[in-house]
UniProtKB/TrEMBL annotation:
Record PROSITE patterns: TRYPSIN_DOM (PS50240), TRYPSIN_HIS (PS00134), TRYPSIN_SER (PS00135)
Protein origin, superkingdom: Eukaryota
Annotated InterPro entries: Peptidase_S1, Peptidase_S1_PA, Peptidase_S1_PA_chymotrypsin, Peptidase_S1A, Trypsin_dom, TRYPSIN_HIS, TRYPSIN_SER
MF-aspect GO terms: serine-type endopeptidase activity
Keyword flag Glycoprotein: yes
The protein's name in its UniProt record: Peptidase S1 domain-containing protein
Annotated signal sequence range: 1-26
Protein keywords: Disulfide bond, Glycoprotein, Hydrolase, Protease, Serine protease, Signal, Virulence
Protein family according to the UniProt entry: Belongs to the peptidase S1 family.
Domain Peptidase S1: 43-231
Length: 231
């Protein structure tokens, strides 16, 4: 199954908005997941992204994080990806890391003119983990459309969502793929997500007003997917 061509970026994910709890009867009943807790800040079980599917995806070359071009000059990413940006390159349209031709997809490179980190960013709690990057030029690549009308508020559990990134392909490894990956996961309602953390070390960490929950057995976003989009 492939994502529909709805052209809406829901939220920039991984470590700041995408939580994948895997426990409690409510979540198990909703998605038939394994009986274990896990917050995933770390694409497992995914596929190579076709040329042209996400032309606005942006790779942060120094950190391995992802981002989303949301206007000609601005990239949305995670605040925790903003360390050591002095020599960083933002690769808008990145599809293949080690291919000079980027697998025949257009790519443009920029540095940062300005970095805006959310003033309430709290690393320990994964809260407000968001940053806006003003590029040092204007991209000619069409930006992503953002959900500004509360579309996500009408989701029902089980709706397909697609995290995107260059994250590691297996737990416990540091190997990242050369080709951009995406994977299908499923939306989990706020109530079910909150309940799933009860009794775990992460109880209370899920903040419904600023976070979204998604899960699928054997399929995750992973290390290196931080800051990337959820489509």
């Amino acid at each position: 199954m492939q994502p529909s061509n709805r052209g809406v970026i829901l939220i920039s994910i991984c470590a700041w908005l995408l939580l994948m709890p895997r426990s409690t009867h409510g979540l198990l009943e909703a998605l038939n997941l394994e009986n274990r807790h896990e917050i995933v800040t770390k694409i497992i079980g995914g596929d190579d992204v076709p040329v042209g599917a996400y032309p606005w995806f942006t790779r942060l070359s120094w950190s391995g994080c992802g981002g989303t071009l949301i206007s000609k000059e601005f990239v949305l990413t995670a605040a925790h990806c903003m360390d050591n940006t002095k020599y960083g390159v933002f690769q808008v349209g990145a599809l293949c890391r080690d291919d000079d031709e980027n697998c025949a997809q257009k790519m443009e490179e920029f540095s940062a003119r300005l970095i805006y980190v959310h003033p309430s960013y709290t690393p320990e709690l994964l809260q407000h983990d968001v940053a806006l990057i003003r590029l040092n030029g204007e991209s000619s690549i069409t930006p992503a459309k953002i959900d500004l009308e509360g579309l996500a508020d009408s989701f029902e559990s089980g709706k397909s969502l697609w995290p995107i990134g260059f994250g590691v392909l297996e737990y416990g490894t540091k190997f990242q793929p050369n080709h951009l990956q995406h994977v299908e996961v499923h939306y989990v309602s706020n109530d079910v997500c909150t309940e799933s953390f009860v009794g775990s070390d992460y109880e209370g960490i899920f903040q419904a007003e600023s976070m979204m929950c998604a899960a699928s057995a054997g399929k995750d976003a992973c290390q290196g997917d931080s800051g990337g989009p959820l489509y």
